[in-house]
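Researcher: Next entry: Integral membrane protein (Kribbella caucasensis).
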Amino acid sequence: MSPVIVLLLFAGLSEAAGRILPLVVRRPGMSRPSVVGLLLAGGLVEGVVFALWPLTAWTLAELVLSPPPPGTGLVWTPGLVAPLVFAAVLAFPLLGPLLHLLLFVGVGAGLAGPLATETGLSWVVAAGCVAVAGAGLGVAVELVRRLVVRISAIGVPIA
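Model: Predicted structure:
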């Protein structure tokens, strides 16, 4: 397994833990297997969303440009994904959501440079593509997260 995949999975697992642990604290009756299952499924989903961020930004850049960009696409490198892992580790709500958001903005700014270089777009337009891609993926995963919480809440008494 490549180091980038391992880092993306670790970032996804950390992000999922930051989202699921407060839920577990509010619902002490949840069984350990269901918590572990939610954690692993959430980590996988978050890792996939992180992996899709550069691809989605590249697709948006292709829509902005009239001729398609000459490159093969924007991909994660260990240098680009390391700040993402750091941001995901800080996803725990009590450790600083504002710092977490600022780190994601920094990761997005780090992705904007290579995207601008690969596509020939200005840095500002590339940063816009990265921001829209990140926001779109974030909204999509938040909707899925809320749906899963609603489905899992059916039949579970809230204490």
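Model: Note for the record: The radius of gyration is 17 Å.
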